[in-house]
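Input/output pair, single chain:
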Amino acid sequence: RKTEARALNNRCSSLLGDGDLAAAKESCQQSLKLRRDIGDQGDLARSLGGTGDVLFAQGDLGGAGQSYGEALRIQDQLGQKQDAAATRVSLAYWSLECNALESGRKFATDAATFFADTKSPSDEANAHLALAEISLRDNNDARAIGEIERAQQLAATSSDTTLKLRIAVVQARINARENQAGTAISTLQSAAKEAAKTGDIALALEVRFALGEAQDKAGKTSEARATLASVSRDAKAKGFGLLATKADEGMKKLVAAKAS
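Output:
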């Protein structure tokens, strides 16, 4: 049964990357049930984390927060420091979407400190990436620049293409905020091609969403509307409710700005 639960959890992660959220959620829930029955708390926390990732992508922030929160409580109780730090990064991104910026900053800072102490540069880069996103949301561009530069330094020798593309997306968002929308658009157009090659549906959608935002910043309203509409359509088709909602909100802002 433990082997079956592990296989289901691995399948959940794979299906999430492939963009099959309905099947991913089913696999995660089956793994979660098995592990609750077995009673292995460490493995249960991993299933909770996977479930949180799926619910987060679907836009169920309440359910995702509960899953991540329970996972973190177990990991802290068991002294699973590495896993707990990874869950704190997930909670940082969750807090960002809930607009709980101070909580998110604490989660990400604690994780970054742990990963720095354990010399895990890619993981630390991911934590600084979360801090950069939180700083942007908080309109603290100077801090966002410092965080993204640190993430870039840490990821310089990494072979993780997904991490580097995610860093490029945040750097482009910063560029767009700093009146360099043209540079941001060029970066994101290249990133979109690379993201499509990875087969990671969520990443590809995120890059295209950022491209729509940059087009809006550049005053290319019709292009931004078309990009965001395509993101909304494709995200809804795959069940990525969070991104679909953000794309829809972006289009509403475009309409409101035109009306004013």
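The CA atoms of residues 19 and 91 lie 21 Å apart. The longest helix spans residues 241-259.
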